[in-house]
Each structure stands twice: as structure tokens, then as C-alpha cells.
Automatic annotation (TrEMBL), chain A:
Keyword presence, Transmembrane: no
Keywords linked to the UniProt accession: Endoplasmic reticulum, ER-Golgi transport, Golgi apparatus, Lipoprotein, Palmitate, Transport
Pfam families: TRAPP
Cellular localization per UniProt: Endoplasmic reticulum; Golgi apparatus, cis-Golgi network
Protein name: Trafficking protein particle complex subunit
Organism per entry: Caenorhabditis angaria
UniProtKB/TrEMBL annotation, chain B:
UniProt-listed GO biological process terms: endoplasmic reticulum to Golgi vesicle-mediated transport
InterPro entries: Longin-like_dom_sf, TRAPPC
Domain of life where this protein originates: Eukaryota
Location (main, coarse): endoplasmic reticulum
Keywords of the record: Endoplasmic reticulum, ER-Golgi transport, Golgi apparatus, Transport
Classification via Pfam families: Sybindin
Organism annotation: Caenorhabditis angaria
Name under which the protein is recorded: Trafficking protein particle complex subunit
Length: 183, 141
């Protein structure tokens, strides 16, 4: 499976990770100017990530036909770490910190491509900026597209370069049947 | 063997794409009505078969078959539904459906479309992609 995802990565259109990282940084800086409150920036990053994630879900499923339908959070975490994150971020990830009867877990990214060349000022972090919330939002969006409602947040960067994304499973969403088809 | 026609529906039952190749007889309904009925039938079959299921597990409806055609279903985890009508003895249709799904995601999520913020994917481009995939399939013609 892992060799397959690597192949996928190789033949997809690539851009330089550094350029991407700098562009992202410039965008967040610009947003900090526009929104003033760092908390609002975090919310916007989450929204952007959500929109990306809900589209990536289809892309992921189309590329990985043999991923099974997940039935519990352990499986969700496994697919995220083994297939989805290496495929789209190009880094390895591990799951830890299970709690609340398997409803909460953390994903630790081995390295965070978004923060490679970035130092987020501590006063912005304490003011509520979560720099990598985009990734958390993308995970939330992708899981919502496959009917799992979760809450995801990027835990503020600690001294080591790992980024922790905390995920709390909420509920399984049901498909609604279109109304008014009786005519 | 023949491949007759294909429908792609979104989660809400909106028909996103339709094309046909060797469909010599039409249903006599308006296209919109036909889409609604096809989608409704699929939903009903799904819920009915779930009710009758002998074990509590995640099951899927794969196809139904008459003496003259077979309708194969594919539902992605995101709720995109693709239905295709073929000759009853056609095989390898699941793989074909998956290829169509791939083509659809690539077209629907293409960067150009996201930037121009159009709601409809590029119809003619998708049409040619799907046609290419279908005509390549051994069961076509």
C-alpha cells in the first residue's frame, strides 16, 4: 500500500514544498493583517481546510480503491495515518493518546511541511492563532464527506517540530432522503 | 455485448452527468423524471435490502439483472452514486465504474473549475473522458 501511495505522489502534479510553505506563510501573515484577531484567522484556516478536505475525500477514494469502509475510530485513524496523510502531505504520521473510550485521539505528524521554514511568534500563539489549523480542517472536511462528524484542532506548536492534531469523534451522519418526490 | 448508458448522482440525488451509447429504446419519461425514478429506485433497493439483511453488517447493493440488461451500482463513501446499464452478461463493470468515478473526481475537482467557481463540472470534457473509458472497455460493442 505504501509503495502505491508513493507512486501516486510521484505522478501527481508537484510544486516545490518550500515555495508552498512560503506562500502559506505569506497568506497567514496577510490574514493576520486583515482579521486583526488571531482567533478569527484560525477559524478561517479551519474553513479553508474543510473545503479542501471535502474535495480531497473523493480524490482519495478514487485513488485508493481498496481502502475498506471504516467502522470504528481505530480504523479511521489507521487509514488517515497510513494512507491519507502520507499521500497528501508526504510525511509519516502516528496515532497516540487514545482517550474517552476511543472517541478521542491524536495524530502526530513526523514533520510538518507547513512550518518547515516558519517560526510562529509566541504572542500570536497565546492570542489564539493555530498555524496548522488548515491540516486539522482538511481532516474534518474529508471525514465529514464520508459521513463522520469530528472535531479537529491543531495543538499549538511545542518545542519539538512534531505537530499534534487532536481529533474528537462526534457522530456518524446519515444520508437524508430527498423530500417531495411524491408528485 | 453492449454498454447502454450511465448516470452519475450526487448525495442529494441531483443528476450530475448522463450519457448513452446504444440505447435504442427510451423510457418515454422526461429526462428529469427518469433521473428521479432511477435514483429513487436505488435508494429504495438500498433501504429495503438493509431491512432484509440477515446479518447486521455494512452491505451494498451491487446490481440488478433482467433478461435483457443489468444495472450496476457504485456508491462511493462520499455519497456519489454511479449507475450503468449494460448487457446482462457483461463483466468487469465494477472496475469500469471505478474508472468513471476517477474521471469524475478529476474533472469535478480540477483546479480550473475551483478557481472559476462554476457549479457544473465541464460537461463536454467529462463526456469525452467517460466515452473514452467506456469505448475502451471490452464489453463495449
Amino acid at each position: 500500500m505504501s509503495s502505491k501511495t508513493k507512486q501516486n505522489l510521484a505522478d501527481s502534479k508537484k510544486m516545490s514544498a518550500e515555495l508552498f510553505c512560503l506562500t502559506y506563510g505569506a497568506m497567514v501573515t496577510e490574514m493576520l493583517k486583515d482579521y486583526e484577531d488571531p482567533k478569527d484567522v484560525t477559524i478561517q484556516l479551519d474553513k479553508m481546510g474543510f473545503n479542501m478536505g471535502s474535495r480531497l475525500a473523493d480524490d482519495f477514494l478514487a485513488k485508493n480503491a481498496n481502502v475498506p469502509r471504516c467502522v470504528d475510530t481505530r480504523q479511521i485513524a489507521d487509514v488517515l495515518c497510513r494512507n491519507a496523510i502520507p499521500c497528501y502531505l508526504g510525511v509519516n504520521a502516528t496515532v497516540t493518546n487514545w482517550s474517552n473510550g476511543d472517541r478521542d485521539f491524536s495524530i502526530i505528524l513526523e514533520s510538518n511541511p507547513l512550518t518547515e521554514l516558519v517560526q510562529v511568534p509566541p504572542h500570536l500563539i497565546s492570542a489564539g492563532l493555530s498555524y496548522s489549523q488548515l491540516i486539522a480542517g482538511a481532516i474534518r472536511g474529508a471525514l465529514e464527506a464520508v459521513h463522520f462528524k469530528v472535531f479537529a484542532s491543531a495543538v499549538p506548536e511545542s518545542s519539538n517540530s512534531n505537530t499534534e492534531i487532536r481529533i474528537r469523534f462526534d457522530q456518524v451522519l446519515k444520508d437524508s432522503i430527498p423530500a417531495g418526490e411524491d408528485d | 455485448m453492449t454498454i447502454y448508458n450511465v448516470y452519475i448522482f450526487d448525495r442529494e440525488g441531483q443528476c450530475l452527468f448522463y450519457d448513452e451509447w446504444f440505447r435504442t429504446k427510451q423510457s418515454g419519461l422526461s429526462k428529469i423524471q427518469e433521473y428521479k425514478l432511477v435514483f429513487g429506485m436505488m435508494l429504495s433497493m438500498k433501504s429495503f435490502s438493509e431491512r432484509l439483511a440477515t446479518a447486521d453488517s455494512n452491505q451494498t447493493v451491487n446490481f440488478y439483472k433482467t433478461s435483457t440488461y443489468k444495472m450496476t451500482f457504485l456508491e462511493s463513501a462520499t455519497g456519489i452514486k454511479i449507475l450503468i446499464n449494460t448487457d446482462p452478461n457483461a463483466n468487469g463493470i465494477r472496475e469500469l465504474l471505478h474508472k468513471i468515478y476517477q474521471a469524475w473526481t478529476e474533472t469535478a475537482n480540477s483546479a480550473a473549475r475551483l478557481i472559476s467557481s462554476e457549479t457544473e463540472p465541464d460537461e463536454s470534457f467529462l463526456k469525452s473522458r467517460v466515452k473514452q473509458i467506456v469505448t475502451k472497455h471490452p464489453c463495449y460493442v
